[in-house]
Amino acid sequence: MADTQLAANDASYYYLARSGRNTDWPMWWVFEHGGTPPTAAELTRHFADRAESLEPLRRRIHEVPGGLGHPYWAADDSPIESHLTIEAAELDWAGCLARLGEVLSQPLDARVSAWQLHVFPAVTGIDTVTGTGTVVVLHVSHALLAGPAMTAVGDTLFATESRALRIAGQGPAARRPSAGVTALAGALSWPARMLRFTLGVRAETRRLAADGDADASNITPRTATALNRRIGSGRSVRTIPLPLAQVRTPGSTVTAVGLTAISRALERYLDKRSGSCPDDLAALVTVALPEHPVLGVNHIGAAGVDLCPAETDLAARARAVEASLRAHRDAPSSRRELNRLALIEGLPSRVFRARFGTLPPADPAGPAFGHTILTSIRCTPDGAWSLLGNTFRFAGMLPPVFPDIGLAHSFVGAGESFAVSVVGDPAIIDDLDEYADLLRAAVAEVTDALTA
């Protein structure tokens, strides 16, 4: 049954969620229809017809007794309808985003359901959509997939001919799990695992010292701001669709342009709300990693990127931000980091559960390790996406919000569309519309500076 167990890296996100942290990933797709919105029956039939292609999602987590082995995936044969919620009310775009915030404030329990689809058939007032649009939201456990899977999920749900979903790094789901046998094996292997872990740590410590990177760190302490507070369960969401051409500038990547706009918007927000913005402003940027056995389905890492608010010239700031991104983006896939994950993989699961399954108390006097989070995804569909003949317009997604960072961002490009999304705890970011307006203006400022 070992191949059905979660990799330690994936199990960490499950344990983090069990500790009270919200680690789910939401992703959504927006479609335009010229006439009558699709009916609940049509939508249900569309997704039910793709049930077989969605097999990699159709699983739930089972724990091993006593934490003596990593949790494992068991097949979930419940009908697609049990994972599908179709909103009956007609909503405007603000109402749809408010409802999305409510969905995200209720974390999934992957032991019951590791994913849910929420469909808003008739939404008015969506930027770039003429008339009424349909919004499809996938709310999914971080232990099951992460942002880089968005293209594959979109192809399965919305390609003209559904493509079987493949989640890189995923093992099979058990049909007849034997939790007791796994627990016994875990108990018997405990001494050997601890010995291998201890010897491995010693060997890695010697290697790090010999290679001269024992003190190297990708993510370093920063000055805490008003954004660095222990977050609650509430979520507010905003999405800003933009023409892709607006954020494409010669000599700069879209991610660097967007990070510089975030830098400018945060600078203004913090100056107004707190009186100052720290010079060491930074973002934790998710980075896609090559497939590796220790990563499981979460082949992503985080790079700490300087946002350089002290640089007043926005074109120069963009160059400095891009230089920081280039300097740090390979750190999550370094030998040091992969070796660390391999050592963790070897720990007895009970030790691992104790480490990640408990949320430590907030430390108001402690440093921050970032002031916001960014995930940037470029979707490359295998053919055009559509929903019951309705035209795809743009997509969005959001990374989980860290326990002590109250604001996160995403960039999602698909075709010629591009969307910036933000999520925050309304107790920390009490007016997300204000921040979204600052961000929209900052995008224009940065692109103007880079094309001047």
What is the 3D shape? globular
The overall average pLDDT, rounded, is 90
Instruction: Name the structural class.
Output: alpha/beta
Instruction: Kindly estimate the percentage of residues that lie in beta strands according to DSSP.
Output: 15-25%
CATH class of the largest domain: Alpha Beta
Largest sheet: 7 strands, mixed
Distance between the termini: 60 Å
Unreliable residue runs: none
Description of the structure:
The model has no long low-confidence stretch (mean pLDDT 90). The chain is α/β, with parallel strands linked by helices and 452 residues long. It has 11 helices and 15 strands. 34% of the residues lie in helices and 21% in strands. The longest helix is centred in the middle third of the chain and has 33 residues, at 179-211. The chain has 2 domains: 2-180, 2-Layer Sandwich (Chloramphenicol Acetyltransferase), CATH 3.30.559.10; 236-451, 2-Layer Sandwich (Chloramphenicol Acetyltransferase), CATH 3.30.559.
How do you describe this structure in short?
By secondary structure, the protein is of the alpha/beta class.
How is this fold's topology laid out?
Elements: H1 8-18, E1 25-33, H2 40-48, E2 59-62, E3 72-75, E4 84-86, E5 91-92, H3 93-104, E6 115-124, E7 132-140, H4 150-158, H5 179-211, E8 236-243, H6 244-247, H7 254-274, E9 282-288, E10 300-306, H8 314-328, H9 335-345, H10 349-356, E11 372-379, E12 386-387, E13 390-397, E14 407-414, E15 417-424, H11 432-451
Parallel strand pairs: 4-6, 5-6, 9-11, 11-14
Antiparallel strand pairs: 1-7, 1-13, 2-3, 6-7, 8-15, 9-10, 12-13, 14-15
Helix pairs in contact: 1-10, 5-9, 7-8, 7-11
